[in-house]
């Protein structure tokens, strides 16, 4: 299994804007459940076959309505975990234990009991590997409960905040634990989102581990937006990625790059066979997917 060629991104549907919060609020004001359903219908007709999202408050509210939509049920799902907005302060303030305590507030007693049984909660929160597994278990339950289409979950990506923090600290073993546990216990493709592709490649090379079988989601665009440390370094790092498991995000650089320019740029990067792009304007979604679908090396189902 590998990511679909065209994936719908949820940021615009969740009121996220890379540059202007005011613009984000304006967009969010006209986004309701019916509009989101229409977006899915239009995106599907334009060739999108996947949807990537984070379980923030707005998406958690919308998903129960979406699961009744035939278009949504036809989409493969690529959730991003954990939800940064809800948990990152707890992780920064209380470490892994603080993160998991926050996650535990969101789940049923049955899930809590299941996590506790696995050796005792005090032991779990003091053991990074056990803590990571408990956190994944809870996140996966949330994903399956809200999506209603368990079999449609293809890949689960670790949010860039956690990926890049582990990379900066050289904690590759926890990233590998995350990938192995997802692959072995849930039979989904493990994914890592990063804004520093060269560091990801370097850390895996330093520890003599391969990225083969791990999906990578990273910004790629012709102006270098969010591409750390430089655009050229990120492009060079693509040569060290095994297999066609790279999904490009931020391809329009938050609206700064015309979709034709983005398509021409991605045409020169054959390792990129998947693109995720969002939109809160119907005509913009149609134009974007129609143009990006022209990329010859996109993965076609």
Contiguous runs where pLDDT drops below 50 for at least 5 residues: 16-25, 116-124
Count of spatially separate domains: 1
CATH architecture: Alpha-Beta Barrel
What is the assigned CATH homologous superfamily? NADP-dependent oxidoreductase domain
Largest sheet: 8 strands, parallel, barrel
* Spatial extent as radius of gyration: 19 Å
Question: What is the N-to-C order of secondary-structure elements (H for helix, E for strand)?
Answer: EHHEHHEHHHHEHHEHEHEHEH
Write the layout of secondary structure elements.
Elements: E1 6-9, H1 21-29, H2 33-45, E2 50-54, H3 57-66, H4 70-73, E3 76-81, H5 84-104, H6 109-117, H7 121-126, H8 128-147, E4 155-158, H9 160-169, H10 172-186, E5 189-193, H11 197-206, E6 215-219, H12 231-237, E7 246-249, H13 259-267, E8 272-277, H14 282-292
Parallel strand pairs: 1-2, 1-8, 2-3, 3-4, 4-5, 5-6, 6-7, 7-8
Helix pairs in contact: 2-14, 5-8, 8-10, 13-14
């Amino acid at each position: 299994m590998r990511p679909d060629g065209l994936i719908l991104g949820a940021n615009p549907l969740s009121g996220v804007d890379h540059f202007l919060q005011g613009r984000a609020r304006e967009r969010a004001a006209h986004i309701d459940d019916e509009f989101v359903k229409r977006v899915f219908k239009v995106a599907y007709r334009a060739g999108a076959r996947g949807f990537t999202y984070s379980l923030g408050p707005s998406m958690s509210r919308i998903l129960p309505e979406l699961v009744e939509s035939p278009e949504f049920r036809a989409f493969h799902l690529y959730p991003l975990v954990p939800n940064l907005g809800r948990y990152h302060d707890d992780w920064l303030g209380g470490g892994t234990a603080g993160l998991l305590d926050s996650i535990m507030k969101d789940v049923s007693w049955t899930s809590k009991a299941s996590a506790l049984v696995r050796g005792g909660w005090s032991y779990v929160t003091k053991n990074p590997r056990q803590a990571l597994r408990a956190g994944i278990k809870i996140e996966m339950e949330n994903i399956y409960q809200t999506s209603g289409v368990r079999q449609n979950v293809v890949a689960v990506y670790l949010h860039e905040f956690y990926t890049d923090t582990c990379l900066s600290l050289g904690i590759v073993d926890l990233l590998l634990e995350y990938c192995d546990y997802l692959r072995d216990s849930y039979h989904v493709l493990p994914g890592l989102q990063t804004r520093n592709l060269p560091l990801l490649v370097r850390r895996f090379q330093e520890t003599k581990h391969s990225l083969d079988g791990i999906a990578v989601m990273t910004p790629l665009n012709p102006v270098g937006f969010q591409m750390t440390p430089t655009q050229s370094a990120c492009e060079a790092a693509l040569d060290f990625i095994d297999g066609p498991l790279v999904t490009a995000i931020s391809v329009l650089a938050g609206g700064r790059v015309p979709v034709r320019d983005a398509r021409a740029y991605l045409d020169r990067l054959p390792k990129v066979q998947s693109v995720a792009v969002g939109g809160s304007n119907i005509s913009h979604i149609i134009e974007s997917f129609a143009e990006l679908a022209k990329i010859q090396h996109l993965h076609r189902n």
